[in-house]
UniProtKB/TrEMBL annotation:
<dbReference type="InterPro" id="IPR010421">
    <property type="entry name" value="TrcR"/>
</dbReference>
<feature type="compositionally biased region" description="Acidic residues">
    <location>
        <begin position="243"/>
        <end position="252"/>
    </location>
</feature>
<feature type="region of interest" description="Disordered">
    <location>
        <begin position="80"/>
        <end position="100"/>
    </location>
</feature>
<dbReference type="Pfam" id="PF06242">
    <property type="entry name" value="TrcR"/>
</dbReference>
<protein>
    <recommendedName>
        <fullName>Cytoplasmic protein</fullName>
    </recommendedName>
</protein>
<feature type="region of interest" description="Disordered">
    <location>
        <begin position="218"/>
        <end position="252"/>
    </location>
</feature>
Length: 252
């Protein structure tokens, strides 16, 4: 339910100028019933000037009379045609001044880890312009040498749910185009929480690429050497031939 402008000042005016119950006023302005009672007692909103909701086109006399005649009637904010669609206003996301200096780092992170995102999607996510994104993609940004890729969620520039939604949308668009994604791209297209839970795939060092299917065949077994049959008497056979010792023995 939409709330009136200057809710506390409106509550002060209703307390001072109508007999509407505290509960009805509290529901209309979005405050607690005890706060409305405190306004009536002078303990809350002391010195606040009342804000006339009738003069400011937020309530009608008939609506106030209905609420005064029936304690169960809920006040309804008057329809303002000028405010129609105000909550759906389109435009770049507002970024606080304290975080604008971190925005280029978040753009660099998105460009590096989610290249499937378009410039329009990044601009909508972190509230920037297409020329800035293009200069970071082409590394022509004036401060590109000092930039560090930082997750925009960690910087508070967007919510994790928003990042996951836009990444899934990019995945669906790429699938519709029939593009073939690599393993790294497919990992980037899942949510951050799912990606962190996935196990890292083993990678083969570049020096031995192409050898992953190479296997060594079984070396042929060497035939076992035939066992020599050794005669026990051969240990006692002395070498034949005439030596000095034999000549000496024959003299005797």
């Amino acid at each position: 339910m939409a709330k009136p402008l200057m809710a506390k000042a409106t509550a002060v005016w209703l307390v001072d100028n109508t007999t509407i119950s505290f509960k009805q006023i509290a529901d209309f302005v979005g405050m607690h019933e005890l706060e409305i009672q405190g306004i009536a007692d002078g303990d809350v909103a002391a010195g606040v000037k009342g804000y006339d909701p009738i003069a400011n086109n937020q309530l009608t006399h008939d609506e106030i009379e209905k609420a005064q005649n029936s304690p169960l009637h809920k006040l309804r904010l008057k329809f303002n045609p000028a405010a129609a669609g105000e909550e759906k206003r389109r435009g770049p996301r507002y970024t606080p001044l304290s975080k604008r200096q971190d925005r280029p780092n978040s753009i660099l992170w998105l460009v590096k880890f989610h290249p499937e995102l378009s410039d329009a999607q990044i601009a909508k996510l972190v509230g920037t312009t297409k020329p800035t994104i293009q200069s970071i993609r082409e590394r022509t940004h004036w401060n590109i040498a000092n930039m560090q890729p930082i997750d925009p969620v960690a910087l508070g520039l967007c919510k994790q749910s928003e990042l996951d939604a836009i990444v899934q949308k990019a995945a669906a668009a790429k699938a519709a185009e029939g593009g073939v994604m690599s393993d790294d791209e497919r990992r980037k297209l899942v949510s951050t929480e799912q990606s962190l839970e996935m196990e890292a795939e083993p990678k083969i060092p570049t020096g031995i690429e192409g050898l992953e299917t190479f296997t060594l065949g079984d070396a042929p077994e060497k035939p076992e050497a035939e066992e020599e049959i050794i005669d026990a008497d051969s240990f006692f056979n002395l070498p034949s031939g005439g030596g000095d010792d034999d000549d000496e023995e024959s003299k005797y």
